[in-house]
């Protein structure tokens, strides 16, 4: 297992949001976490990234306990989180944003990482000198993912990467995530576009009120009447 959550309790001050959540992601898998608004999807990803404290349970990355480690140490352990708000440096150029993502890396790896990111998202190379805040929503999302890749993660978590994007860009971003997995990166993804996320996923979990209530192969969940009715709008 690359990433494992075992009976995780986590939340905000005294407000517990995750009530004993368990899930795992195997090396090289794409796993989706789906659920209604407020179910705790973002909190789960934030707990993994060290941004929300856990009060009980274990979070293991490649076998090592990482719960309650500082966020920058989790990045060094190989897990990078792409937050929903993207958190780009708007006044900096595209290439400067990418370089910021590589702060844990040596100079020589920065160059090869940049080449890999430009191969994945050619638009970022074309726009490399443009200010990040003048890019379109889709381009900014590609930049946020590209910046995460600059840290050379073994595991990537993504919080609603397609939010606010036009349908053709949603497909492009999800297709890029699929190609990132093909390079060996393990992916955990939260998506509003659940059916499109399931289409690129190996497995999925359904979260309700801070616990996992259903899990299975992504294709099985996509056909499950309960999932179709509650989360796929079918
Ligand atoms: P959404 O799709 O709306 O983002 P979600 O499944 O990602 O939903 P979370 O954002 O994890 O859900 O929120 C779970 C619960 O935690 C909600 O009841 C929310 O109000 C609460 N919550 C989120 N952030 C905080 C915070 N900083 N302080 C207190 N409560 C919070």
Short synopsis of the structure:
The protein is α/β, with parallel strands linked by helices. The chain contains 10 helices and 10 strands.
The first-level CATH class of the largest domain is given as Alpha Beta
* CATH level 3 topology of the largest domain: Rossmann fold
Overall SS class: alpha/beta
What is the CATH homology-level superfamily of the largest domain? P-loop containing nucleotide triphosphate hydrolases
Number of strands: 10
Number of folding domains? 2
Biggest β-sheet: strands ordered side by side in the sheet:
6-7-8-3-9-10
Largest sheet: 6 strands, mixed
What is the overall number of helices?
10
Account of the protein in words:
- The chain has 234 residues and is an alpha/beta fold.
- It has 2 domains: 155 residues, 3-Layer(aba) Sandwich (Rossmann fold); 62 residues, no CATH class.
- It contains 10 helices and 10 strands.
- Strands 6-7-8-3-9-10 form a 6-stranded mixed sheet, sandwiched between helices. Strands 2-1-4-5 form a 4-stranded antiparallel sheet, covered by helices on one side.
- A hairpin with a 2-residue loop joins strand 9 and strand 10.
- The structure holds adenosine-5'-triphosphate (ATP).
- The site of adenosine-5'-triphosphate has 11 residues, from strand 2 and helix 1.
């Amino acid at each position: 297992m690359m990433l494992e959550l075992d009976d995780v309790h986590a939340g905000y001050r005294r407000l517990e949001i995750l009530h004993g959540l368990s899930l795992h992601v195997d090396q090289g898998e794409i796993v989706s976490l789906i659920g209604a608004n407020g179910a705790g999807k973002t909190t789960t990803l934030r707990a993994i990234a060290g941004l929300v404290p856990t009060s009980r349970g274990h979070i293991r990355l490649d076998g090592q306990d990482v719960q309650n480690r500082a966020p920058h140490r989790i990045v060094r352990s190989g897990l990078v989180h792409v937050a929903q708000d993207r958190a780009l440096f708007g006044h900096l150029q595209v290439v400067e944003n990418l370089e910021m993502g590589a702060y844990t890396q040596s100079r020589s790896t920065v160059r090869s990482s940049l080449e890999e990111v430009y191969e994945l998202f050619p638009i970022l190379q074309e726009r490399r000198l443009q200010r990040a805040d003048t890019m379109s929503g889709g381009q900014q999302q590609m930049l946020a993912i590209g910046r995460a890749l600059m840290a050379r993660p073994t595991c990537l978590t993504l919080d609603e990467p397609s939010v606010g994007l036009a349908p053709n860009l949603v497909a492009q971003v999800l297709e890029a995530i699929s190609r990132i997995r093909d390079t060996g990166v393990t992916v955990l993804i939260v998506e509003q576009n659940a059916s499109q996320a399931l289409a690129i996923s190996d497995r999925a979990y359904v979260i309700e009120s801070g616990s996992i209530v259903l899990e299975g192969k992504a294709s099985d969940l996509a056909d499950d009447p309960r999932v179709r009715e509650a989360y796929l709008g079918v």
